Amino acid sequence: MELFSLLSNNAPFSSLSEEKLRNIQKVAISRNFLKGEFVTHRDDIWPYLLFVQTGEIHAIKESGKGRSFVIETFHPGDIFWGLSLFEDDKPNPMAIQVAVDSKLLLWNKEQMENIISDDPQFAWGVFRLLARKMGRASEIVEAVVFRPLPSRLANLLLHQFENAGDGFVSRELTLDDMAARIGSTREMVCKLLYQFSDKGIIDIHRTEFRINKRDELKTIVKRMKG
Fold it and tell me: Of 27, 59, 140, 161, whose Cβ has the fewest other Cβ atoms within 10 Å?
């Protein structure tokens, strides 16, 4: 999708007039990132708003033991901002890492202050987006704290392969990727996958994957909530 259309169809940019939208598009910092690169690290003072033009990026929380947890995934049209964009010298609580080669747009603190002061509707769009992100954060906490690992893994498989059909598909996520998304270890993910496989719920090969019994995965998710 052309960049202007992508911006105009996503909040909070959708509230801006065409003239304002084209003006802020002109002043944006355009950056290309390769898979594996970090846009910003945990504890960085990073006063920017980020817009994903192409690719995919992850918000990652790292533990002192070297484990990481993918808190959120951002796709084209999504935005992310550093805490210091709104609160001076506030460090990032997480890192932003590129999952797929990406093109990103960045606006700094001064630019965002000008945009918000010039257009209250844009500010309102940011507040609404913040409210949605708070709701999403609550869902993430519930999933990690209150759902056991089999439920989290079953939910991940359903979402990751929701359009896969009945045949084998390529495994895009490694064991480490899966572990990072459900807050576990690759050893536990491997163990649970083979438990699902032994029950005939899935077929899993080194490079391919197939869901045989989606209803049973859904039952695991529902049964183990809370």
Answer: 27
Q: What is the rounded distance in angstroms from the CA atom of residue 222 to the CA atom of residue 212?
A: 18
Name the domain count of the chain: 2
Residues 60 and 160 in one domain: no
CA-closest candidate to residue 220, choices 144, 147, 169? 147
Range of the domain at 207: 146-223
Q: In whole angstroms, how far apart are CA 207 and each of 35, 94, 185, 186, 224?
A: 20, 31, 19, 16, 29
CA atoms within 13 A on the CB side of 13: 26
Kindly report the pTM of this predicted structure: 0.67
Burial of 104 (0-12, 13-18, 19+ CB in 10 A): buried
Which of 100, 130, 160 terminates a domain? The answer is 130
C-beta separation of 119 from 21 below 8 A: no
Task: Give residue-wise pLDDT tens across range 117-144.
Answer: 888 888 888 888 877 776 666 666 666 6
Rg (CA), the chain: 20
> Measuring CA to CA, which residue among 182, 193, 119, 130 is closest to residue 152?
182
Token pair 């209803």 in the structure block, residue: 215
In a domain, 135, yes or no: no
Answer yes or no: are the C-beta atoms of 73 and 58 closer than 8 Å.
yes
- Residue 32: in which H helix or E strand, if any? strand 29-33
The domain that contains 118 carries what CATH number? 2.60.120.10
pLDDT confidence of residue 11: 83
